[in-house]
């Protein structure tokens, strides 16, 4: 597998996995509370990370939502390596659903990659700490 790719095997496609993630997953908010990630860490004989990106229709028009999803996927793709390595070391499968929390088209007409990439990095760092067991509490929300 290529280092900075995002293959179809790294995406959540099954409806049952998304429902399981929403029901049993824990939430993490980015450093500026603009993005939210719902994640689920499971023991697995196929360790790795799978992601999905979902943006509500209330956030803005389709063109704006699609651009936000594209930027989030790209930021994840470029910053995923430490998270994937720690999941493989601990033999865990991590499912992540990225959503916008306070991003919307009215307040953020222009989307900037660097700004969103920092938010995605902060989310990935928080999830990685959970995988490694460095945080306090049992699968509770972190702010």
TrEMBL record:
Q: Which GO terms describe its cellular component?
A: ribonuclease P complex
Reaction(s) the record says it catalyses = Endonucleolytic cleavage of RNA, removing 5'-extranucleotides from tRNA precursor
Is the Nuclease keyword given for this protein? Answer: yes
Per the UniProt entry, the Enzyme Commission number(s) are 3.1.26.5
- Write down the InterPro entries for this protein, in alphabetical order: Ribosomal_Su5_D2-typ_SF, Ribsml_uS5_D2-typ_fold_subgr, RNase_P, RNase_P_CS
User: Which Pfam families did the record assign?
Assistant: Ribonuclease_P
What biological function has been recorded for the protein in this entry? RNaseP catalyzes the removal of the 5'-leader sequence from pre-tRNA to produce the mature 5'-terminus. It can also cleave other RNA substrates such as 4.5S RNA. The protein component plays an auxiliary but essential role in vivo by binding to the 5'-leader sequence and broadening the substrate specificity of the ribozyme.
Assembly state and interactors? Consists of a catalytic RNA component (M1 or rnpB) and a protein subunit.
Report the protein name in the record: Ribonuclease P protein component
Taxonomic classification, please? Bacteria, Pseudomonadati, Ignavibacteriota, Ignavibacteria, Ignavibacteriales
